[in-house]
Design a protein that fits this description.
alpha/beta, 19 strands, 6-stranded mixed sheet
Length: about 500
C-alpha cells in the first residue's frame, strides 16, 4: 500500500492542527514522525489510519485539477477514501491502550490478541482452539507467552503495550502505525518489541512511528518527517544527524550522576508494615516494609509487572493492605477518611490519564486536583479558579484553559496533570512514569521544576524505567522484583 497526502489541512474544535501537509509514503518504508508536544504527530497518524477526516478546503480556494487531500493505493488502484484501506492498517499507541482502562475491557491477553484476527475492539464471538493457537503463537513471538491467560487490566503498562503490538500483527497489516510504542517499556520488553519489529524489515510493510527519545527509536527507521506547529519542516532520509536533531533527549543526568543527600531522620509521612496487596484475588505486592519520611525523594524501579504502579497507588490510597498488614499515613487516624490525605498529595500516573473524562476542560481538570476527584461535583469557586489559573500560568498552559482534554495531545494532557498535582501545594508528590509522552524540552523543564521542589523540602516518590529521570537529589530507592522488595533504603 502507498499513501499520499496532498496539501492536507486539519482543524479540531475550531483550531488548526495540521497545515499544508504534503507527504508520500511507499510500501516498505519506515518513517519516524518527530516533533514537540502538540506538533500534530498523533493526529497525523489518525489521519493516515482513516480515523480522522481532513478539513475540506473552501470551494473558492480549491483548484479544479487538485489531487484529493488523502488517498490510498491498494492493489495498484488509487482510492480517495480510506474505506478500502482501513482493514489493512493497524495502529498501536497510548490513546488506544487507554481505552481498555477507560471502558473496563478486561479480557484475557490471548483474547485481546485474537480480536485482531477479526479487527474488532472486543470479542464479538466465542473463540475456538484455532484462534487460541494463533493468538498464543503471536504472544510467543513477542516473548510474552506467559501472559496469555492473564487479565489485560492486571498487566503492567509495558506488558499491555506488547499485547497490543501482538494484536496489531494479528491483523496482518500492510501499514503499521506505532505511536510512542517503546515508551514505558523496561529494557527487556523494549528488546522484545524491537526483536518483533526487526523481523518485519524484510517485508513490504509500511511503518510509521513516533518517538521523543533516542532510546525509544524503533529499529529500521529510514525516513524522517519532522513537524513544528502542525507544519512539515523536514521530510527525507533519516540520517543519524537528522534523527539526533529531531530527538533531543532532554536528559541532563544519569543515575550515576545522582547527588546523594545525607540521610536525615525526619518525621514519618507514610509507613508500610508487612503489606500485601491483592488484585482479583491474586497477590501483586507481598511483604512490603518501608517508611517514607518528610523531605525524602524515593525512586521506585523494577521491570514491567514488578508492582511499581500498584505500590504508588497503595501509598496514595487506591489500594488497601490485606489482613495482617497496615499502611500508616501522617494525620490520618481512626475516623479520618483517606480522601483527606489525597487532597494534600499530588498524583500523576498513566492510570489517572486513562480514566480522566476527556470532555472536561483544562481549567476544571486542574481545579479538581484540590478535591482529589475526577471532575467536579460542584462549580469551582472564584478562589479555586484564581488558584488554578496561577498554576496554569506557571506551567505555561494558560492558552489551553478552556480546551477539553480530548483536544490535546497525549503529552499536553500529561502536562495538565502535572498542573493538577501542583495546584494542591502538596507536601508529597507521587509520580508514576511522569514524563511519558513529553518532548525533550518539556521533560527538561519539568525535571528542573521537580528538583527545585525537592530542594525546597517536598517529599517525592517517583517510578521510572529511565536512569536519566532519577532526580539529582534523590535520597532513597526501592527495587521491586515480582511484587517483592529486592532492596529498600538509601541510594546505593
Amino acid at each position: 500500500m502507498d499513501i499520499e497526502l496532498n496539501d492536507l489541512q486539519l482543524e479540531r474544535g475550531g483550531r488548526r492542527i495540521l497545515t499544508n501537509i504534503c507527504w508520500h509514503l511507499t510500501a516498505g518504508q519506515h518513517w519516524l514522525v518527530a516533533g514537540g508536544n502538540g506538533a500534530g504527530k498523533t493526529q497525523l497518524l489518525k489521519v493516515l489510519a482513516g480515523d480522522v477526516w481532513p478539513t475540506p478546503m473552501p470551494a473558492s480556494s480549491s483548484k479544479p485539477d487538485a489531487l484529493p487531500a488523502r488517498r490510498y493505493r491498494v492493489g495498484g488502484q488509487w482510492f480517495n477514501e480510506p474505506a478500502e484501506a482501513k482493514d489493512a492498517i493497524a495502529y498501536v499507541g497510548p490513546e488506544r491502550q487507554d481505552r481498555y482502562q477507560r471502558y473496563g475491557w478486561d479480557y484475557l491477553a490471548w483474547e485481546v490478541v485474537a480480536t485482531g484476527l477479526y479487527r474488532t475492539d472486543i470479542p464479538l464471538q466465542r473463540y475456538g482452539v484455532t484462534q487460541r493457537r494463533r493468538a498464543d503463537a503471536l504472544l510467543k513471538r513477542a516473548g510474552i507467552a506467559a501472559l496469555s491467560a492473564r487479565r489485560f487490566l492486571s498487566l503492567s503498562f509495558g506488558e499491555r503495550r506488547l499485547v497490543l503490538l501482538a494484536r496489531a500483527l494479528a491483523t496482518r497489516p500492510q501499514v503499521l502505525l506505532l505511536d510512542e510504542l517503546l515508551t514505558g517499556l523496561d529494557g527487556a520488553n523494549r528488546e522484545r518489541a524491537r526483536g518483533l519489529l526487526a523481523g518485519l524489515r524484510s517485508t513490504r510493510l509500511l511503518r510509521v512511528s513516533t518517538a521523543h527519545r533516542i532510546e525509544d527509536l524503533p529499529p529500521g527507521v529510514d525516513h524522517l518527517l519532522r513537524l513544528e506547529g502542525g507544519r512539515i519542516v523536514y521530510s527525507g532520509r533519516a540520517t543519524a544527524k537528522a534523527i539526533a536533531t529531531a530527538l533531543e533527549s532532554g536528559a541532563r543526568a544519569t543515575r550515576d550522576g545522582v547527588r546523594r543527600k545525607r540521610a536525615v531522620e525526619r518525621a514519618a509521612l507514610v509507613t508500610f508494615r508487612n503489606v500485601d496487596i491483592y488484585m482479583d484475588e491474586k497477590p501483586v505486592l507481598r511483604d512490603i516494609n518501608f517508611t517514607l519520611r518528610r523531605g525524602e525523594c524515593w525512586v521506585v524501579h523494577g521491570v514491567n509487572g514488578s508492582g511499581k504502579s500498584t505500590l504508588l497507588r497503595a501509598v496514595y490510597g487506591d489500594h488497601h493492605a490485606a489482613f495482617g498488614g497496615e499502611i500508616l499515613r501522617a494525620g490520618i487516624g481512626a475516623g479520618v477518611p483517606v480522601s483527606v490525605f489525597k487532597e494534600r498529595t499530588g498524583f500523576v500516573a498513566p492510570q489517572l490519564q486513562a480514566d480522566y473524562p476527556r470532555y472536561l476542560t483544562v481549567l476544571d481538570t486542574v481545579v479538581s486536583g484540590l478535591h482529589a476527584s475526577y471532575g467536579l461535583n460542584e462549580p469551582a469557586t472564584a478562589a479555586e479558579l484564581r488558584r488554578a489559573r496561577r498554576v496554569l500560568k506557571r506551567h505555561q498552559l494558560t492558552e489551553f484553559e478552556q480546551r477539553t482534554l480530548g483536544e490535546l495531545s497525549y503529552g499536553q494532557v500529561r502536562r495538565v496533570l502535572f498542573a493538577r498535582a501542583a495546584v494542591t501545594a502538596a507536601k508529597l508528590m507521587l509520580l508514576d512514569e511522569p514524563y511519558t509522552g513529553l518532548s525533550g524540552a518539556a521533560r527538561t523543564a519539568f525535571q528542573q521544576a521537580l528538583e527545585q521542589e525537592i530542594d525546597a523540602g517536598i517529599t517525592v516518590m517517583i517510578a521510572t524505567h529511565y536512569d536519566s529521570e532519577w532526580p539529582r537529589h534523590a535520597t532513597h530507592e526501592i527495587e521491586l522484583r515480582r511484587g517483592r522488595v529486592r532492596y529498600a533504603g538509601v541510594i546505593r
